[in-house]
């Protein structure tokens, strides 16, 4: 008994605070568990997790986090009370200061939480109301069908939702006393509030302009369809797959929409964005008249060219011009295509070239216009060269046929040679008229003629040596004979009797007897004897070796 009293007297003073601290800590732990569970149950009944996750799009367990925060906060308070009961103020002081700061901050947190919940409720109600209001209209269906966008009611509802939450952010930060974050957020919200009227005006201008452009487009499509321009376009060669009413409606739609976009961008008052876009749209607007003029030039030229080409083809078909290639033996080059059809297509082609050049000038494409002009000049040269080819080939066939009709064994060979020579000359003339490498054509033609001349010279020089030698020998023999002839008597050496002699000595001989010439000796009037220097005529004039045949 004495020992117990001594133990109680010695340690009783210290044991009571320890037991009290332990009991207080246990009670605080139990209270913390109950409070954390209660907060978690309360938030679970309010479906806080579902609402927050549906709003933010992220899965966060807010209920569990809030319960754990309450649990640790109460437990820390119990620990501080236990340390104070044990008189461990040096240990409990930091925790006490922290709890005091938290307790002082709790009213701000509660006020910020109330503001956040209020903003969330307002944002949710506004989103639901706007979504339901727009869902009752047919705006979503029209925009989805015409523009291909998502339902507009959901987008506008989300925009309003986040806008309201953004407006509550500065109030929440102000309630928390976070001035370092409050200033930039407040400036951003102020700028946004100043920009909202401009944005709203731009959206209104854009939507109104879009719907007006759409209405006018439908009117133009109906008007053009009633004019039956599609069938008229089909007569001039426009395919039915090209819808003339839709093209006209789209042009009018663009003409209305571009000024609308310019006005909408101007209403934003964002110089860095609106000015470049406005300048670009202004340039497009200035170019639209030239574009329309260029399109009209092309369309009118095509229609007129097709019409004139059709008339010309019919006229040429009536004049039997299509039979001309057959008469010139050139139908094989055209195949089954008629000459009048080719001429009509060439007319349309060159007319469209001129139209494209003029349209390029209207659009300011000078390089394209110059290129087409050069191509037109080259096309004219091509046509001139083709005409030279046609006439030359016709002449080659004509002259070749004339030569081939001759009664010679080598008529066919000579006709082919004549044709080749004429065709070669015509090719050179045609290529030169086309302007295709004049120097190359001249060089090739000169080299060809030079080669023919050299070949002829070599053939005559090498193959005709013996005939040339015989010809020279004959010439020398005749020259020697002439040199050895006796000199005839002159008039001064003749007697008077000779002068007075009757002419009967030369002309009075009877028929059948040869007359004796007073100048040529009888030996020189003998018929040919067949020597090498005299021509021997064959007995048969139809002999194949007869050179006169």
From TrEMBL:
Which top-rank group of organisms is this from? Bacteria
Alphabetically, the GO molecular function entries are: mechanosensitive monoatomic ion channel activity
List UniProt keywords, sorted A-Z: Cell inner membrane, Cell membrane, Ion channel, Ion transport, Membrane, Transmembrane, Transmembrane helix, Transport
Q: Where is the composition biased (Low complexity)?
A: 532-549
The record lists the membrane-crossing segments as 18-39, 69-90, 102-126, 159-182, 194-212, 244-270, 291-317, 337-359, 371-396, 408-428, 440-462
Q: Where in the cell is it found?
A: Cell inner membrane
What does the record note on quaternary structure? Homoheptamer.
The UniProt function text for this chain reads:
Mechanosensitive channel that participates in the regulation of osmotic pressure changes within the cell, opening in response to stretch forces in the membrane lipid bilayer, without the need for other proteins. Contributes to normal resistance to hypoosmotic shock. Forms an ion channel of 1.0 nanosiemens conductance with a slight preference for anions.
Family the entry assigns: Belongs to the MscS (TC 1.A.23) family.
| Protein name stated in the entry | Small-conductance mechanosensitive channel
Q: Which organism is it from?
A: Alkanindiges hydrocarboniclasticus
What does the record give as the organism's lineage? Bacteria, Pseudomonadati, Pseudomonadota, Gammaproteobacteria, Moraxellales
